[in-house]
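Lab notebook, design round three. We kept the backbone fixed and only want residue identities now. Task for the bench partner: fill in a sequence for the structure below.
Input structure tokens:
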């Protein structure tokens, strides 16, 4: 239990995982998160995890979110993705002015926020607020959200710059465009706004999300800039998928090894190599991610150097996880590649998650070198 008396997301993660695993096929076919699974996530505290305690939040940590997301992701990475995105968007919404925060959480902390932080539309200053227009693709959970956070380029007298706007789900349209081979159950469709009025208290400058020199305190009172944690959160469903893939692979492989105890048997030797290498890479990735969680949860300040190292570590962890699960898939035989196999679903979801722009190692490596070599000089 948390200090506020809520049963934690960690405590309920196993039950959510089992439900999400059973509903995964249905959710994939519908190309949207299962309604009962989302309700279970919200009831367990996924939406309130990073809401300020003064507004009923549960005072959650990044390490706790990691623990829950990995458990859920082992059965359904798409559901884990929805959970971490909810946490990320909620933490971003903490940058609203006090009046906006009170409006957003007026009915309680269990408000599911979806979002698109890439500036795709425009925000035009008008009396008392902004007019928001544009189309934002790949907004996960968009059909199930209560509110949606959107970043837009400022146009007219309010510019230059970018503006973050929080709008009720009912104020926008959702075009069902999500057709990726993986993460189908995230429902990452396109959100369309057409001259939607957004009051001033429900907006803030987008620069507050990326500030690394003097970031504002978050709901836990700690200044953790978004670039220090977004890649970390995107890795968590992948780590869960890898754990789940290893578990399911072991079940498939057990039948092959039954009665073959000879260590010199080439089949045994091959499968032993697959198991040892893949499990080791998964462990290595988790150690990298655990360090990120420890820093953002406990360090007195998160520096630019920390941000660069986190992004490097997360991109490297993503590569390790893809390599591990690819190896498991190659050694799974036709049973693992069956369209009804859980293993192939986890593999598809992991590959889609790994394609996220923030998890590409070349970009992360350049940022790390710039911070540590050029900056140090």
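Proposed sequence:
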């Amino acid at each position: 239990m948390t200090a506020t008396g809520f049963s934690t997301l960690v405590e309920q993660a196993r039950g959510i995982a089992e439900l999400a695993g059973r509903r995964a096929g249905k959710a994939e076919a519908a190309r949207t998160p299962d309604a009962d699974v989302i309700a279970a996530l919200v009831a367990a505290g996924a939406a309130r995890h990073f809401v300020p305690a003064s507004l009923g939040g549960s005072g959650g940590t990044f390490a706790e979110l990691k623990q829950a997301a990995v458990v859920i992701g082992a059965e359904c990475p798409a559901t884990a993705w929805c959970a971490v995105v909810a946490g990320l968007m909620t933490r971003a919404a903490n940058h609203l002015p006090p009046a906006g925060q009170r409006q957003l959480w007026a009915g309680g902390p269990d408000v599911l926020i979806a979002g698109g932080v890439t500036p795709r539309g425009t925000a035009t200053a008008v009396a008392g607020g902004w007019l928001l227009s544009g189309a934002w693709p790949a907004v996960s959970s968009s059909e199930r959200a209560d509110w949606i956070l959107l970043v837009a380029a400022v146009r007219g007298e309010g510019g230059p710059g970018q503006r973050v706007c929080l709008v009720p789900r009912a104020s926008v349209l959702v075009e069902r465009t999500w057709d990726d081979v993986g993460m189908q159950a995230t429902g990452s469709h396109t959100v369309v706004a057409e001259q939607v009025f957004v009051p001033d208290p429900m907006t803030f400058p987008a620069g507050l999300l990326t500030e690394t020199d003097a970031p504002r305190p978050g709901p836990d009172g700690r200044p953790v800039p978004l670039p220090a944690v977004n890649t970390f959160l995107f890795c968590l469903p992948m780590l869960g998928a890898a754990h789940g893939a290893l578990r399911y692979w072991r079940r498939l492989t057990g039948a092959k090894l039954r009665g073959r105890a000879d260590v010199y048997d080439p089949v045994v030797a091959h499968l032993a190599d697959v198991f040892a290498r893949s499990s080791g890479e998964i462990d290595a990735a988790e150690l990298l991610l655990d360090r990120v969680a420890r820093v953002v949860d406990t360090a007195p300040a998160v520096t630019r150097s920390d941000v660069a190292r986190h992004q490097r570590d997360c991109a490297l962890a993503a590569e390790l996880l893809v390599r591990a699960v690819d190896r498991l898939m190659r050694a799974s035989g036709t049973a693992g590649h069956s369209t009804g196999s859980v293993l192939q679903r986890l593999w598809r979801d992991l590959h889609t998650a790994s394609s996220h722009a923030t998890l590409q190692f070349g970009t992360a490596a350049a940022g790390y070198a710039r911070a540590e070599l050029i900056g140090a000089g």
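Keep this in mind before ordering anything: Strands lie at 113-126, 129-139, 147-155, 162-168, 173-175, 189-199, 203-205.
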